[in-house]
Amino acid sequence: MKHLKKEIKLMFPALCPEEKALSYSKYMDLPIDPLPDNILEQINADPLQSDKVLPIERITHFFEHGFEETDFGFRILDDGVGYLAHYLYVPDLDMPKLGWWFGWSGQKPESVPDGCGNIRYKIWCPPDHWDHCPANGVDDSDGTIMEESLDMGSGGPVIRSLVRAIDPREIGVSKELLDEYGEKHQVLQLTHEHSENVTDRIFSAIMRPCPDGGLELRARVWWGYKYEGKKFVRDDDPGKLQCSEKLLRNNLLHSSYEFNHLRKLLHMH
Length: 269
Prior knowledge:
The chain is of the alpha+beta class. The protein contains seven helices and ten strands.
């Protein structure tokens, strides 16, 4: 495909001895399956038309409705903000299993010394994942440190972010809607990802079980925004790498690969 590099290789250092001693280190060598052609075609498609972009000022519309005409694509807006819409259907996975995975993979094994990343996060997407851990070393009350690249081993920038959850009620999502999500065993996610080297981004997602099995994930991302004073404001720091079509395509590529691989990984576990 014209925009994508077919070769997938590891960009981070090899596992340390303590990581190699863990039984699940073998999953670092689990082959990454190709993506379906229809997914690659969507990633390679032209940018979305401007009228298909959801402005961040209408983010509550996404949480209130979920389904939209345009669920997959990207666009660089006139002000330089990068917008991304992503849809994934993951068969054979359920919400309890996914919840277990997020909890387990977010905690480093105690036997591994500092500075080696988090192997539990690495095996999810070996070409791109390096570290994922509580910022305070205990829980996520102070945010989560996440270190990854987003291009399946093509040599792009490594992004080290502090990820903080945003209370959806602060932006106008009602308690009744949040209760409804819980009753339906659905997950609403809203975070601010702050990085020193790449423009900040606001990430929003809805995860829910499908009636016929499996689960689906819908995400909307705005690269170039941060959350301050209970408001979304521009991150226009000139010292940071700004968003580009390449970064957005790579973001779609990475997210599609990582969930495709997670499905395979959890079936091996």
